[in-house]
Every structure is written in C-alpha cells, then in structure tokens.
Amino acid sequence: MTDIQFKVAKTVREAASLMAAAKGKGRILAGGTDLLVQMKAGMVTPGTIIDVKKIPEMVSITETKGSYRIGAATPAAVIGEHKKLRKAWPGVVEAINLIGSTQVQGRASAGGTLCNASPAADSVPALVAAGAIVTIQGPKTRRTVPVEKFNTGPGKTILKAGEIVVSLTLPARPKTSGDAYLRLIPRTEMDIAVVGVGVSLTMKGDTCVSARVGLGAVAPTVLLVEAAAKALTGSKLDAKALDAAANACSAACRPIDDKRGTIRYRTKIAGVLLRRATAIAADRAKGISRPAHSQQGH
Amino acid sequence: MAKIHVTTTINGAPTEFLCDPSQTLLDVLRDQLGLTGSKEGCGSGDCGACSVTVDGRLVCSCLVLAPETEGAKVETIEGMAKGDKLHPLQKKFVEMAALQCGICTPGFLIASRALLERNNNPTETEIRYWLAGNLCRCTGYDKIIHAVMQVAAEMRESAK
Amino acid sequence: MSNPKYKWIGTRPDRPDGADKVTGRARFAADFNLAGQLIGKVLRSPHAHARIKSIDTSKALALPGVKAVVTSKDFPEQADLTVPAGEMQVNLRDVTRNIMAREKVLYEGHAVAAVAATTEAIAKQALSLIKVDYQILPHVIDVAEAMKPGAPVLHDHLMTEGAKPPATKPSNIAKRIEFAKGDTKAGFAKAEVIIERSFTTQAVHQGYIEPHAALASASEDGQVQIWSTTQGHFQVRGFCARLLNLETSQIRVTPSEIGGGFGGTTVVYLEPLAVRLSQKSGKPVKMTMSREDVFRASGPAPGGNVHVKIGAMKDGRIVAGECTVEMQAGAFPGSPVGPACMCSFACYDIDNVFIVGFDVVSNRPKVAAYRAPGAPISSFAVESTIDMLCQQLNMDPIDLRLKNAATKGTKTAYGVTFGVIGMVETLQAAKDSPHYKTPVKPGFARGVAAGFWFNVGADSSAAAHVGEDGTVTVISGNPDIGGSRASLALMAAEELGVDYDKIRPVIADTASIGFNFVTGGSRVTFATGLAVVNSVRDLIRDLKGRAAKTWGVDPEGVIWENGMAKPAGSNVGTFEPLTIAQLAATAGKTGGPINGHAQLNVTGAGPGFGVHVCDLAVDADTGIVTVGRYTAAQDVGTAIHPSYVEGQLQGGAVQGIGWALNEEYIYNAQGRLANPGFLDYRIPVASDLPMIETVLVEVPNPTHPYGVRGVGEVPIIPPLATVANAVARATGLRMLDLPLSPPKLSAALDAPRPLMAAE
Ligand SMILES: Cc1cc2nc3c(=O)[nH]c(=O)nc-3n(C[C@H](O)[C@H](O)[C@H](O)COP(=O)(O)OP(=O)(O)OC[C@H]3O[C@@H](n4cnc5c(N)ncnc54)[C@H](O)[C@@H]3O)c2cc1C
Ligand code: FES
Ligand code: FES
Prior knowledge:
- The complex is a heterotrimer.
- Chain A is 33% helix and 24% strand.
- By secondary structure, chain A is of the alpha+beta class.
- Chain A folds into two domains: 5-170, 2-Layer Sandwich (Uridine Diphospho-n-acetylenolpyruvylglucosamine Reductase, domain 3), CATH 3.30.465; 177-285, 2-Layer Sandwich (Enolase-like, domain 1), CATH 3.30.390.50.
- Chain A has a five-stranded antiparallel β-sheet with strand order 4-5-10-6-7.
- In chain A, helix 9 runs antiparallel to helix 10.
- By secondary structure, chain B is α+β, with helices and mostly antiparallel strands.
- A five-stranded mixed β-sheet of chain B has the order 2-1-5-3-4, with helices on both faces.
- The N and C termini of chain B lie far apart (56 Å).
- Chain C is α+β, with helices and mostly antiparallel strands.
- Chain C has three domains: 18-25 and 457-602, Aldehyde Oxidoreductase, domain 4 (2-Layer Sandwich); 32-137 and 210-259 and 265-297, Aldehyde oxidase/xanthine dehydrogenase, a/b hammerhead (Aldehyde Oxidoreductase, domain 3, Alpha-Beta Complex), CATH 3.90.1170; 304-455 and 606-758, Aldehyde Oxidoreductase, domain 4 (2-Layer Sandwich).
- The longest helix of chain C has 28 residues, at 524-551.
- Chain C is globular.
- The relative contact order of chain C is 0.12.
- The structure holds flavin-adenine dinucleotide (FAD) and FE2/S2 (inorganic) cluster (2 copies).
- The site of one FE2/S2 (inorganic) cluster (FES) has 10 residues of chain B, from loops.
C-alpha cells in the first residue's frame, strides 16, 4: 500500500504549493464525484489529496459589474441556489445543475468537471458558449485562459505541474441576452451526455447580434463551434439560419461509436439540440422564461 | 499507513474516529461506528442508498472522504426518529407501503427529508427529479412518491 | 378496498418489519459482522474464454495478513447431476465450476481464486499477487453465432439433448425442446391472415440494489454458520453441503433481510467460498460483491431470439401459432427456455400450436432466474405479432385478445388444462379501466399486451407458537422480499380470529424450522401462506383440546370462533368462552406449551394473467420515449394485503419498462461487459416514470383457502410488448429488437421504410 496523504489547504497559494510538492502525484479534491470513483476503480492512486473546499475564494460566488466569478470548487447545489446568477446565466446554471443527482449536486463543482476533462462533461459546453474565463494559480503566478482552450483531450488539460484552477469568470453581457444548455441522455436523469449543446445569444429585437455555441461529447474535447455562431449572428433565427447552424454543429462532430451512442446518432443530435437550445436561449433573451426538467428540449 | 483523527458530530452526538486518508464516510459509518443503516448499493454515487447529509447538504456518503467531515455535522438514518417517535416520513413510508425489500429506504428517507426541508410544496415532477439519484428496483417508485406528497401535504396543513 | 368476506384479509395494516426498515435497524447481509472476521475477495477472469494453464498463489499466501487462499482445487469434483435452483434447474458439475473456474474460464468475471485477509486492502493486494497463466481461446457472445457450426465450443462434453437426429459431436446447443398441440400445417392452411417476424432481446440484470454478501464461520468440529442475502437459505444450505461435502445438519444458514432478488438470489456465489476460506483460516470470513462484480459475475436474465408465426381468420380468431426460441444460458446449460416456450401462447385458446426451444451456451455469466424466467422474452415476440394482427385487421387489441382468451378448460400446448383462471376477467378489467376509457392524448399513442405465468407451489413448513400471555408467533422459512410477513400475519389473524397485531411473524434460520423451498415463483403468500394457515389450524386443534380438558368434555364438543373456544352446543354444557390468553395461562395444567405446525408440498398454484396499457410519446428527432400513463391489470386471486399486491404490479411493470427501453448487457469485441454499473446499465429512475395505476382483478384460486394466487411474476411479462406496441402505433414502426434505446429507435425512424404503411 502506498501512503496517501490528506491535506486541507487554507489558501490558494498553499494548495498550489502542496500540488507542486506532491511532484505530479497530487490531486485536488473538490466534490470528489470523479476523483473518488476513479480511486475506487484503481484508475488513479494519488500521493496527496488536497481538499480545497476550506478556501473561501474557491467556494464562493461574487459579482462585479455584471460579471460573475464562481469559485472552482463551489458545489453545483450552491450555484443553483444563487438567484442572481441563475437569472443572469440560466443556461450555465442549468448545465451545472444537470450534473448527476441531487446528491452529486451537493458536491460536484464546475472546476472539477473542467479538470476531469471528460469530453462529455455537462456544463463545459455552456461555459464555452458563455465565453467563460478560467483563472489558474501556479506555485508562483496566476494566469487566465478562455475555457475552450483549457482542455486538450480526454482527461487532458493545459494545467502545468503545481497549477490549480481557482475560479471561472462569466463576463457581463447586455440585458437582451440569453443562454441555454441541452443534453441528450437516454433516461431523464443520472446519465452521461450522448451530446450536449450550449448556446448563448444576444438579440436586438428579432435579430441575433452575437452568438456562441459550445458542443460536447462529439469530439475529444468540448468544441467552440464558430461556424454555427456565424450562421446565427445577424439572422432573425429563421429556418435558414437554424439549418445552417445545425449543419455546422453536425459537421463539427468528430464522434466515436461507443456504448452510449453511435456516430450517426451523435452527429444528428448535435443539430437537433442546437435548434432547440437556440430557441430557448432566444426566448430568454426576449425575457420569456422556460421551464426546467426538459433537458432534451421537447 | 498513518491514520487521521477526525472530530465530527453525528446525529447530534460529538463523535471522534480514526480513519485512513482515503477511507469513505460510508465505510467509517458502517465499519467503524456500527451505523449500518446507510447502505452500499454501488459505491460510485449511482444508487443513493448511502445518502446522508453533511452540514445540511444531501450527499452520497460513498463519495465523501471521511477526513472531510472534520468539524462537520453528519446526519444519518439512525438519527431520523426522535426517541421512539418516527419522523412523519418514516411513518408514512410504512403506512403507505413505500418499501418492499427496504434496502433503498434509508436513502430515500434522508433524501426526501432534505427535499421537504427546502420545499414543503413540491410538485410530483419536482419530487421525481429530486429523488432521481435514489434507485429503487422493487416499488416502481409509485408509492414512494405518493408517500412524500402526502407528508408534504400534512406538513403544509400543520404549518397553517 | 377491504374484502367483505373477511375481517383482516384485504386490509392494509403496517408491516411487522416496517419500523426496523425505516430506521436502518433492519440487518441486511453486509450489516452482519463477527469479532475477528477476515475479509474475503475474489480474483476474477479478465478473459471471456481461456484455458487455465496454472495458478500460482504462493506470493499471495506469503503476504502478511493473508490467512487463506482457495482455488478450484479446494472444492470437490461434482457428479453430473441436475437439481432445482429456484425456478430453474442447475447441474452440480456446472455449479462447482461456476463458483470457481476449473479447467477454463468461461466468461469475463468468472471466479478463479479467492483470498481471505485481515483487511480489505490486504485482500485486494493479495489478489494482484496471484499469477494465473491463461491460454486465451476464441470466444462467442451472441446466441445465433454460438449455434453456428464452427463456433468456439465451450464444453467438449456438451451434446445437444433432444436433438433430431441425435447429436454426434459437441456444440453450444445444450438442449432442444418441443411442445405441440393440434396440427399447425392445417391451421396455417386455413388461416386468412398470416404474420411472421423474428425478434431479439438482450440480456438484462435483475438489478437488486443489495449486492451479494455472505458471512461464514466454520468451527473446528465441522459445524458451519452462514449469514447471507438469499431468497432461499435452505438452498444455500443444500448447495453448500453438496459443494463442500458437508451434511446439511452441519450447516446453519440465517437469512439476512434481503435487498431485492427477483429470482437472482436463488443460487450461490459467495457462500461456498466464504465457508471454504473460513475452514482454511479458522476465522469467520465476510465477503461482499462490488456492483461491478454483481453485473459481471452474477446471473443476469438471458437475451433471446424468437421467431413467431401466427395465422388467423379475418374475424380475429387465431387458428395457428408457431414459435422458435433460442435462448442464452450463459456459460453453462440451463436457460429458462422451457418456461419461455410454455408461456408463449398460454394466454390464448389456440387449436394448433408448435413451439421449439434451444438452450444455448456462450461466454456470458450463467443466467439466473428473473421474475417469470423466460416468459417476457417469448411474450414480447408473440404479443408484438398479435398487435400487428390487430393493426392489420383493424381490431381493438383487447377485443381481439378477448376473442382468443384462454378460459377454464383450455388445453395449453404444454399439456395442462386450465382450471379457474382470470384471463377474460383481466382483459375486461383493463378495458373498463379509467385509463383505457380515456382517449389517448394528442402526441401520445397507446399499446396493450398480455402475459401469463404458472406460479409455483412446492415445499413449505410453518409453525405457530402461543406465548404465555396468549399472543402468537408464526414461524416460517422464506425471506421476506416484499411484505410477505404482513400477508402471512393477516392470514394467521383471520384464521385464528385474533387481531393482526397479536400475531408476530418470524423468519427462522435453517435449523429452527422445517425445509422451505425458495422465495420465488410467486409462491410465498400462496404456498407458505397455506402452511401458515395449516399450522394455525393445527394450533386451533390444540387449543380446542385444552378447552375440552378444562371443561372436562370431548374435544369434538369445542368449536373455535372469534379467537375463542366455545362449547359446540348446549348439549355440551354451559361454559364461558375461553380466550387464547386464558388457555395459555393454564397451559401447564392442560398439556404444556401450545403449538401448531404444518408441512406440505403444495400443488395447485393458480396461474396468473396480466394485461397492461401504456400511453407514450416518441420524440421523432431524438428517438426518446416518454411514458405518459401506465396501467397494470392482473388476476391476483385474493389480495391479502392489497398495497403489497399493487407494489408487485408496479415494481414488475417498471422493471419491464426498463427492459423494453434501455436495459441491456453490452459486450465489447474482447467479450468484456462494457456497462457494469448503474450509470450505463440504465434501470428506470423516478423521473422517467408516471404513477403506475393498478387494477386488481380478484378471481380466487379454488385450491387455496383464501383464494391466493402468486402475483409477483406476471407483471414483468406484458410491459415489453406493451411498450413496443405503443411505439409501433406512435411511429408506424414495428421494432423487433429490444431495447428501444434512443440511438436504435432514431436510426430506425430515419431509415427508409417502404413497407410501413401496410402494417
Ligand atoms: C452518479 C454520478 C453522476 C454523474 N453525472 C454526471 C453528469 O450528468 N454530467 C457530468 O458532466 N458529469 C457527471 N458526473 C461526473 C462528475 O460528477 C462531474 O464531472 C463533476 O462535476 C466533477 O466535479 P467534482 O467537484 O466532484 O470533481 P472532483 O472529483 O473533485 O475532481 C475531478 C478531477 O479534477 C481535479 N480537480 C478538481 N478541482 C480542481 C481544481 N480546482 N484544480 C485542479 N484540479 C482539480 C481532481 O483532482 C480530479 O482529478 C457524475 C458523477 C457521478 C458519480
Ligand atoms: S452506495 Fe453510494 S450511491 Fe450507491
Ligand atoms: S424497496 Fe427494494 S429497492 Fe426499493
């Protein structure tokens, strides 16, 4: 048996130095809903487990001038209970709130999802659509990076030795904006996304003036689909624009056949969900609220 | 392996235990503290049979490391009845046959209580989604959902 | 709904074990511990098919903390002998190989060695130190592939039993069976409509939430105690005795509370290993399976290929039916192909029927019973075909079934002639249900299907003991998996004429009550219920004798009424009635303790029929199915405790819905299970479902004093076709392969389909 250490970090810097000291065998513990499962399955054997949930900066949500900073280890349930954030970024919040069960929600964090770097991670496509910025702390310095640049492959991130994710920042945006996230799962809950689509729009009257689209579970990393955004931007979200955007999503797919879905299915669903998520995001931008609990959007 | 000394409060009682750094809360509850009411159906967060609350948050105790509970308040099924008085949910589950084999029952009760503490007027759909992480293979959920709805109604009635 | 004939039967009191189960006090298998116990772990095969060239356990044994290691060498060879295992049959030569691989590993997850160590961590480490030298062999997973000439053969000795002409060389087809009635050739010649299709279903797991667990303690004098989660502790005793060359009287098995089973815990996996490890180490040994082990190594229910041909007249009368069932047995012979064949057409009175079944081995875990073993598979095929007939003839699916329904006197293809049965009543009840009478909502479509199961009687023992204060303990020997304690207590209260809460039902270990067959086959409330009723009658006989003695009259002069002994008439004399409490108080003077007991082999289990109705919507873009409304109607004999009867219908229906929509064993190219967990083996979650409405149709079983029929198994049969039939009507697409998972359904919806309009 290897000796596992359990450490509780009090500050971001302390966490980063513990990581650095663990020489590649350190693991940050946020909600543990990936880490513990992987440890049990023997997939990872950390040398040092570093609990970061006692670091206020990493478990809190703050707002400055319409921009929100979400601590990387903030549990999904806490994010879901933040009324202002929910109002400002309904798509991001519902994406985070789709992760797992109520029990998993009590623990799982946006930072954990991001660092676990599953291509099928819920919330990442919504964060990509939202244009979230990741704040990273190393042993000495801090840096930021757009969320779509963070993952480099399944289980892989740009984090260097001793670096941890501190927070995610959602930019301020015009009032007439809306976002939405939809995923396809075979059941209504407790499944990993077969496809996930996040859409964020800003409208001016009936015209879409800017758009971002994030697409998950169809390639080794979550994709920012610029071609889809382009198709929507400047349009009235008419059939032609939606067709073009849906096709762009399908075209961006580089999926695999696996136990959760086929290439054909994933490619098709990417387009289907794009249309549905766009409709919801547009409604929200226009101030029309849409009910939860219809993740497939039907 | 060096053990960690943890001080917590479990069901209101100050409790200390020694655990391995990678031991789960569920293992400590069951194997060390003799609190076997929390069940292990999967060990991977998928079934909810191990549900407890930590500082009021509903979690799977199989996905919490025991050392994380330092200074925390843990509530398990063993603390749900007060003295010889069953919690209304416990009573209603028996009365309405919301259990067959009963292995999922502690988890459902803990999860349902967490729901009703937040919302005493949930819709059927809200209850179903809240409890989606609690698997029951025997009942088809029907009588469980009815029991929770009934207790919520009675809570609202007595709050009037 | 309480039954006007009875005081207690048909009421819904709290179950006797309720408080224990809502407080966490009830002890399930993994909740048992003994001082000084070791933890046992199993090393499992990573290969689907391989020859074991050698196993070296020396390094594991040398690890500090390891107290014993066992391999197949520690278990005696067994004779080629078939014995019952719940509702299925198993061969002891195979059982010993299934609990611990001998010459070969036959599926991924097959046990090859086990260790006992002072901690779980040490036991796990020890497993990694066991060196197994495998010669990997080609494997076969699919039944159709396994049946082909040239397929990798699992067992060199396996010659197809019942083959025509007799088999001359080994194959994977263990058995061919046949059932015939009338002349199907003539029937099809006469038919005005003939529909013929091939269907497939995948292996599914029972999905009980409690993983297998066992604690065993062997002492130096050869006595063994076992605590385990099982549907049949007498079967655990029997198997362990055989597999370990012990005498049954040396083994005492105490059943824990059991966290589901559904047929899957009628066989042994861990118990013999735990005993052997305990014998070798001299310490108690506790073993539990992980969820992954449960999926990989405990018996799922089989998948199967079913070919159906039905011929009918234009008025809907079915005149001929043929059915061929090829069924997965897993690594060893013994699939439930027999019941699958027998149940296929049993709902209907058809003159000409011909059914053939094949029992086929492949590199999968050995299948175990799962609620009405085999029946859902053949029923899915037959009920789908019948639905196509309804569509083609433009007939209401209940009306067409009414036209063909089996009734008293119908002779089945497997030879039995039905007595009083409730198929017609159940169809009618479904038709009259609030659900069926409500028009289908826009966007939804409705499916209907029926199902049949024999139900089982078999051996039961029971005893009734009067305490010093006159309260009664009723002792039986079947683990309670869904409220049977309550039903047994209700029948005892009714029989004895006392209040329900004056009866305490207890489930005894193997040393404390006579033999009981497993909790399975929907037999407990029926057969063990009968034993309880008879034990109470025996008790009443004793009580009457005591009253007679007290009064100095003949026992015949005493009657039992409302829980009291009374003189049979004025000619006997005038005596104040005596209550049980009074008789108990003076028992010492009238012959000592007052007890009753009964043991019987029960026959005459009344068969049950179910008819289900489902409204669902299909999202045409995604293939996602949403069940909007569901009703299960069933002929339940007499509902002793209606809540638990409803619960059986609801739980079974939901398992069937899961089977229809998402549950399946998925294998990769190496023959390894790709989804051994609840995240990807998708049993229904609460948010997937609506309420499950039930209609209890009470057609009492004439062979039981309270009219009980088994109710536990029928409800899993109809849902597969009910859902598929609704999908067919929602989409115009007849899905022949389960599950109807979104990718599959979506692909089918998007495929060109020129023939659809005709259906
Ligand atoms: C039952 C169940 C259901 C699930 N359902 C879903 C689902 O529906 N959708 C979905 O996307 N996922 C799902 N998941 C996966 C998991 O819950 C999510 O990925 C979750 O968001 C992970 O967050 P966490 O805080 O628990 O991560 P942790 O397990 O704490 O961490 C995950 C990984 O990231 C590292 N890490 C965490 N935080 C940081 C940081 N700040 N800096 C550097 N490294 C860090 C950890 O060391 C670890 O390697 C499910 C898991 C379970 C058990
Ligand atoms: S045991 Fe924790 S969720 Fe299943
Ligand atoms: S009652 Fe058995 S799993 Fe829920």
